[in-house]
Amino acid sequence: MTATETSGETPTITVGEHRLELEVVPAVEGSSGLEIKSLLSTTGMVTYDPGFTNTAACQSAITYIDGEAGILRYRGYPIEQLAEKSTFLETAFLLSHGALPSAEEAQEWEARLLRHTHIRDDYRRLISSFPREAHPMAILSSAVAAMPGHYHEVFDITDEKQVELATVLLLAKAPTLMAYALRHSRRQDKPDVAPELGYVADILRLSVGQHRRWEPDPTMVRALDVLLLLHADHEQNCSTSTVRNVGSAGANLFLSVSAGISALAGPKHGGANEAVLAMLEEIRDSGVSVADFMTRVKDKTSGARLMGFGHRVYKNYDPRAAIVKQLADEVLSSLGKRDELLDIAMELEGIALADDYFVERKLYPNVDFYTGLIYRAMGFPTSMFTPLFAIGRLPGWIAQWREMMQDPSTKIARPRQVYTGPAERDYVPVQDRSTA
Ligand code: ACO
Fold first, then answer.
1. CA–CA separation, 134 vs 205, rounded Å?
2. What is the Cα–Cα distance from 96 to 428, expressed in whole angstroms?
3. How far apart are the C-alpha atoms of 146 and 141, rounded to whole Å?
4. Backbone dihedral region of 154: left (phi > 0), alpha (psi from -120 to 50 degrees) or beta?
């Protein structure tokens, strides 16, 4: 009934007597797209692609991933070069403005961000109103959604100046909100920001600093900077697609990013770094051998998975995981600590990389496998791992939202479905319904 032909000049799809010529949307690298907008009107059928494993929902010039080769580039720059030579703030500029900043632009960008990291008292009270047990992702998502209410000037999503201001406010204030959420859960005060320390150093001081004059260790500051940078974008992942979906309805940047934070909280996405630590601790505390644990994650009836392994796109070593693994080693050595959880993680990885189950399914460590160990060494509790991921991902969410808003082909996101419920039937009054 259906046939697709792509070998000739113009790919076509035939459904019964209907023949549709498909336009090719060319990619600079990677898979080009087949434009199927008129499939429904021509053939009466829709595409069925659960989880969007084969659907490009947009054209984007921000991030390129080759999952088979383990390649990740932001705006063309390999992640390895950025991790070695750039900073999180510079990369944030690159992502949202399309080019690396000049020296003057970089200085202005940083100074502008640092002018806005403080949180007003009424906004601090919002954080304090949450129960101490509230998960910081819930606090962060709510607080980001509430930001327009506290900063009225940023509303018009079509005004570039206001969008730039919204970008700055979000990047500046979200880390402070995250730090205050942590301090709130620990019943600690919320110290004022110290912009003179620098963006990343002050995130560390505000989050895990023991007292006002606490000075972060430069090795930890650089490590956190690199970790944030590594998370800065990852093209159309679940949370970024969420940001785009919400934004496609015309929602402002804060509400769209708040939705992205919620999506990121799931254990199959950003929540995985928290789950990895829980898994490593469980192995350590239960005394179960690493080999037995591996048998369990391969048994589908157990419901367990090797957290931090596998990826929808990477069918090779996640390039970010390679950098994080080295960073974990450096950070832990600089602290003079041998972390037994790192030993367990390395043993799990060693077994998995040589095991047919993982090899056949191309399951490799993803970025989450080693990040938690570094965050833990820095003094962050497990509940803060995903919020840190969210702070790292802000530049990507912002850049993708901005790109979408400027794209004249953007339409409100509204997928179709294949209906599988009952066909039409008549309403039955309650007294006539069978109880069986
Ligand atoms: N442990 C054990 N088996 C796994 C794992 C794992 N971590 N990941 C995938 N598999 C198996 C599946 O059981 C399935 O096996 P089958 O073909 O015999 O049925 C096969 O590998 C394919 O898995 P899917 O779930 O279909 O792959 P998908 O692309 O949908 O999922 C995902 C990717 C969600 C990341 C998955 O690998 C997973 O759950 N990993 C653990 C959670 C995790 O680390 N998430 C972080 C992702 S990275 C990020 O968000 C930054």
1. 22
2. 56
3. 9
4. beta
Measured distance CA(357)–CA(41) in Å, rounded: 44
Q: Ligand 1 centre from 237 Cα, in Å?
A: 14
For 66, phi then psi, to 5°, come to: -115, 100
pLDDT at 180 over 80: yes
Is 229:86 a contact under the CB 8 Å cutoff?
A: yes
User: What is the distance in A from the centroid of ligand 1 to the CA of 115?
Assistant: 42
To which residue do tokens 């792509």 refer? 6
Which residues share a beta bridge with 97?
Answer: none
What residues line ligand 1, using a CB cutoff of 6 Å? 268-270, 272, 297, 305-312, 361, 363, 366-368
Residue 311 C-alpha to ligand 1 middle, in angstroms?
A: 6
Average pLDDT over all residues of the chain:
92
Q: How many angstroms separate the most distant Cα atoms in the chain?
A: 78
pTM of this prediction?
0.91
What average pLDDT does this structure show over 77-84? 98
Which domains does the chain carry?
2-56 (2.20.28.60), 79-265 (1.10.580.10), 272-378 (1.10.230.10)
Going by alpha carbons, the residue nearest to atom 41 of ligand 1 is 307
The mean per-residue pLDDT over the stretch 342-362 comes to 93
Query: Please, are residues 167 and 96 in contact by the beta-carbon 8 Å criterion?
Result: yes
- Please identify, by atom number, the ligand 1 atom nearest to the C-alpha of residue 264: 50
pLDDT at 345 over 80: yes
Q: Which of 171, 185, 74, 174 has its CA nearest to residue 134?
A: 185
DSSP 192: P
Q: How far is the CA of 305 from the centre of ligand 1 (A)?
A: 8
CA–CA distances in Å: residue 300 to residues 198, 303, 329, 364 = 47, 6, 33, 18
Taking Cα atoms as reference points, which of 391, 148, 142 lies closest to residue 258? Answer: 142
Please give the Cα distance from 75 to 101 (Å, whole number).
13
The pLDDT score that the predictor gives to residue 7 is 54
Q: What is the DSSP annotation of 377-425? A: HHT--GGGHHHHHHHHHHHHHHHHHHHHHH-TT-----------S--S-
| Atom in ligand 1 nearest the alpha carbon of residue 298 | 2
Least confident piece of the model among 70-74, 271-275, 376-380: 271-275
Contact 251, 245 (CB under 8 A): no
**SS3 category, 58:** coil
Active site residues: 311, 368
